[in-house]
Every structure is written in structure tokens, then in C-alpha cells.
């Protein structure tokens, strides 16, 4: 895939400037760049992700009221486990388990090389400076665990001034507790990554004339099927866990389809 992308890249001109605004213009799309240049194109492929695309759409269409997107915000568990299945996947510093079911994903961090005072600080919130000289290798069962599942996706809304509001979580969203039980992880502390600080922004929606549109549909309707999204904004649902390579493959496939 890499060599195919590099081959294709040679056919394109690289412009080191940001897209500010897009407009329909004489059956084409007029793109305004931050260096004040304007480009007229037959087709436009956006890959600026949810925040970048939101800024472009707010600038381009004054009728857009707000946008919304999902951020995948894993639980961060400070725990103790000696589960054989988890440990089997644990490499020197970092390992992952991605069951075929694909409905959850666990990142397991080996804490053995972390300074003992840091480790205790993460777990308890108290500083133990006198332990700075020691590492944590004699605490092999202590782990940082991240759990991603279908319910770790948090929805937020972006206003035109780019302020945001987070949708309240349902009270019964405790799916991760089943996973902790399954792997017999004794939990010391659980936190959840905050919206906006998560890892996989996706599912961009646009509110216009009091109606919500998924991003692809909004662009089809208002930009005459000439603007296409290649980034994860237009993925309504993504699997939990690392997603970048999948997104690159999706982008590559979509580009090929639209350039035919
Ligand atoms: C802390 C962190 C760790 C992560 N770790 C992993 C990991 O280990 N494995 C994994 O698979 N994924 C990881 N991810 C997720 C991964 O980064 C994203 O899933 C992936 O980058 C999404 O790709 P994208 O093309 O949709 O958007 P992006 O990679 O965000 O690309 C958008 C690009 O558009 C540019 N842009 C924005 N606005 C404009 C504009 N107006 N004009 C022109 N360009 C613009 C931006 O500068 C950016 O380069 C991590 C994410 C975070 C935040």
C-alpha cells in the first residue's frame, strides 16, 4: 500500500497551506487557502478530520448551526492481575489483545520499568519521593490497562465559536466491569479519558436548518456530489482500538473509487 501511495503521490502537486473555505462555483468547487490562493476543482477530497472539517464547514456555510462527533475515550484502569491470557500478549513494554469478536480492545502496559515513586503516585495520588531510586520490577502484577469497547465512544457537540458540550453518559454504561471480571483484574482505580482527549474522532454530523446530516450526506446535498471525505469523520462506526491503518486503507479505496 505504501509504495502504491508514493507512486500516486507523484501525480499530485503539494501545497503547504490550509483550506479555509469551500464554495460551489460554476459546477466546480472553489477552494480558498490560508495563503489567499484560490483553486477551482472538479472534485475535492477532504481529510482534515472532525475538527478541521468542522472549521472548514463553519467558514463555508453560515447556515450550519453546530456539529457533533464521537471520540473513543478508553477507561484507564490501575489494577493488579496475573491473568495468563493477558500476560501472554505482554511484550517488553506494551501489548494489545484484539479478540476476533472486535467488540472490545485492551491495551496492557507493563509497569516494570516505571520508577516506583511514579507508579505509587499514579495509583494513590500521593508522592513517595524517597522511592525514586527504585523501579517497579518487583511488582510484576501491577498494570495499567486501557479498555475500549462500543460504549467508550463519547459524543460531543461543537458550536460555531468552537466551544463544546459533552452528551451525558448513560448510567448503566458499566460494560468494562464485565471485562475486568473476565480477566480477573483487581482494580485499584478507574478513570475514563475525557472527551476531546481520546484517540479516534469519528462520525461527524452537521446540523443545518434544525436537521442533522451525517457528513457524507451533507456534502452530497450541499456540494453537488463534488466533495468527498477521506478521513474518519465519515465513518459512522469504528472498531475499538488502533484505527489508523484501517483508516488509511479506507481512504485509499475511496480515493480510487472517486477518481475512476
Ligand atoms: C494521543 C493519540 C494516540 C494515538 N495512538 C494511536 C495508535 O497507537 N494507533 C492507531 O492506530 N491510532 C492512534 N491514534 C489515532 C490516530 O491518530 C487517528 O485515528 C488517525 O490519525 C485518524 O486519521 P485521519 O486521517 O482521520 O485524521 P488526522 O490524522 O487527524 O489528519 C487530519 C490532518 O488534517 C490536517 N488539517 C486540519 N485542518 C486542515 C485544513 N483546514 N486544511 C488542511 N489540512 C488540515 C491536520 O493538520 C492533520 O494533519 C492516536 C490518536 C491520538 C490523539
Task: Describe it.
It contains seven helices and 15 strands. The protein has 260 residues and is of the alpha+beta class. It folds into two domains: 17-65 and 203-258, FAD/NAD(P)-binding domain; 74-192, no CATH class. Strands 11-10-5-13-14 form a five-stranded antiparallel beta sheet. The protein is elongated.
Descriptive key words:
5-stranded antiparallel sheet; elongated; 33% strand; 2 domains; binds flavin-adenine dinucleotide; FAD/NAD(P)-binding domain; single chain; alpha+beta; 260 residues; 15 strands
Rg (CA only): 22 Å
The coarse silhouette is elongated
Q: pLDDT under 50 segments (min length 5)?
A: 91-95
The tally of helices reads 7
> What structural class is derived from the secondary structure elements?
alpha+beta
Provide the list of bound ligands, each named once: flavin-adenine dinucleotide
Question: What's the count of strands?
Answer: 15
**Topology order in helix (H) and strand (E) letters:** HEEEEHEEHEEHEEEHEEEHEH
- Helical content (DSSP H or I, runs of 4+): 25-40%
Q: Strands across the major sheet, in which order? A: 11-10-5-13-14
End-to-end distance, in Å? 18 Å
- What summary fits the major beta sheet? 5 strands, antiparallel
Amino acid at each position: 500500500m505504501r509504495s502504491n501511495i508514493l507512486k500516486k503521490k507523484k501525480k499530485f502537486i503539494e501545497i503547504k497551506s490550509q483550506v479555509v473555505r469551500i464554495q460551489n462555483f460554476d459546477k466546480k468547487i472553489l477552494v480558498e487557502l490560508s495563503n489567499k490562493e484560490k483553486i477551482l476543482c472538479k472534485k475535492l477530497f477532504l481529510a482534515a478530520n472532525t475538527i478541521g472539517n468542522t472549521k472548514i464547514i463553519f467558514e463555508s456555510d453560515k447556515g450550519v448551526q453546530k456539529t457533533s462527533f464521537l471520540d473513543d475515550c478508553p477507561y484507564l484502569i490501575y489494577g493488579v492481575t496475573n491473568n495468563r491470557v493477558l500476560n501472554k500478549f505482554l511484550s517488553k513494554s506494551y501489548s494489545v489483545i484484539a479478540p476476533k469478536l472486535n467488540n472490545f480492545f485492551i491495551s496492557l502496559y507493563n509497569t516494570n520499568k516505571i520508577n516506583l515513586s511514579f507508579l505509587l503516585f499514579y495509583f494513590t495520588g500521593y508522592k513517595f519521593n524517597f522511592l525514586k531510586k527504585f523501579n517497579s520490577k518487583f511488582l510484576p502484577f501491577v498494570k495499567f490497562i486501557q479498555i475500549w469497547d462500543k460504549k467508550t465512544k463519547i459524543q460531543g457537540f461543537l458550536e460555531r465559536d468552537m466551544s463544546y458540550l459533552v452528551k451525558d453518559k448513560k448510567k448503566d454504561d458499566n460494560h468494562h466491569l464485565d471485562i475486568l471480571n473476565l480477566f480477573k483484574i483487581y482494580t485499584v482505580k478507574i478513570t475514563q479519558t475525557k472527551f476531546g482527549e481520546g484517540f479516534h474522532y469519528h462520525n461527524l454530523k452537521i446540523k443545518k436548518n434544525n436537521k442533522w446530516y451525517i457528513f457524507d450526506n451533507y456534502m452530497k446535498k450541499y456540494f453537488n456530489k463534488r466533495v468527498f471525505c477521506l478521513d474518519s469523520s465519515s465513518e459512522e462506526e469504528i472498531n475499538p482500538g488502533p484505527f489508523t491503518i484501517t483508516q488509511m486503507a479506507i481512504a485509499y479505496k475511496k480515493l480510487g473509487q472517486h477518481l475512476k
